[in-house]
Design a protein that fits this description.
By secondary structure, this protein is mostly helical. It has two domains: about 40 residues; about 40 residues. Helices cover about 80% and strands about 0% of the residues. It contains three helices and no strands. It is flat and about 55 Å long.
C-alpha cells in the first residue's frame, strides 16, 4: 500500500466517524426537541448555540481555526434544524 493510499484510507475512516457522529447528534437533538415540546419550551436557543461554539473554540486543539470552528458548527446547527 502506498503512502497516498494509506492516507486516503485514514481520511475515509475519519469521514465515516464524522458521519456517524453527525447522525448521533441528530438523534440526540431530536430527543431534546421532543423534550422541549413536551415542556412548552421553544426549540431554538441562540444563547445555547453561542455557548456551544465558544466552548468548542476554547477546547479546539487545532489546526482548525476559531473561525473554522464557528463556521463548521454554524453549518451543523443549520443542517440539524433543517433535518428535524
Amino acid at each position: 500500500m502506498s503512502e497516498l493510499e494509506r492516507l486516503r484510507g485514514e481520511v475515509a475512516a475519519a469521514d465515516r466517524a464524522i458521519l456517524a457522529a453527525a447522525n448521533r447528534r441528530l438523534e440526540l437533538v431530536r430527543e431534546i426537541k421532543a423534550h422541549k415540546e413536551r415542556n412548552g419550551v421553544g426549540f431554538v436557543d441562540p444563547d445555547q448555540e453561542r455557548r456551544l461554539i465558544e466552548a468548542l473554540q476554547r477546547e479546539n486543539p487545532g489546526p482548525l481555526s476559531d473561525a473554522g470552528v464557528r463556521e463548521l458548527y454554524e453549518r451543523i446547527l443549520e443542517l440539524v434544524k433543517r433535518e428535524l
